[in-house]
Design goal:
Elements: E1 5-10, E2 20-22, E3 28-30, E4 37-38, H1 39-43, E5 51-54, E6 68-70, E7 79-82, E8 86-90
């Protein structure tokens, strides 16, 4: 089974009616240029500025834990962090 893919949408307010999406060169552009990424691929972009995942227990119950959640898409007990300035939009089958 392959990893689920996601489009990365910017949640920053823009002056354009169109949304900005992460493209294949790692910059935000319009939807026609967006690229789908797995969470593993996102960990390697910009040193994890968009997404991070660590084994359960590595993140201690301190202020640095803010924004970390247990992974809900597999059977691991890992924790993940998604940048609050983006939204991961699942790629529909057939896209």
């Amino acid at each position: 089974m392959s990893e689920k893919k996601y489009y990365v949408k910017s949640l920053l307010k823009q002056n354009s009616p169109s949304s900005l999406w992460l493209d294949s060169v790692g910059t935000f552009d319009y939807s026609s240029l967006r690229k789908a990424y797995t969470k593993s691929e996102l960990e390697n972009i910009e040193n994890g500025d968009y997404y991070k995942r660590v084994p359960f227990g590595e993140i201690f119950e301190t202020g640095i834990r803010t924004g970390w959640y247990h992974v809900t898409d597999d059977d691991s007990f890992d924790d993940e962090w998604i940048n609050p300035l983006i939204e991961l939009v699942p790629v529909e089958d057939g896209e």
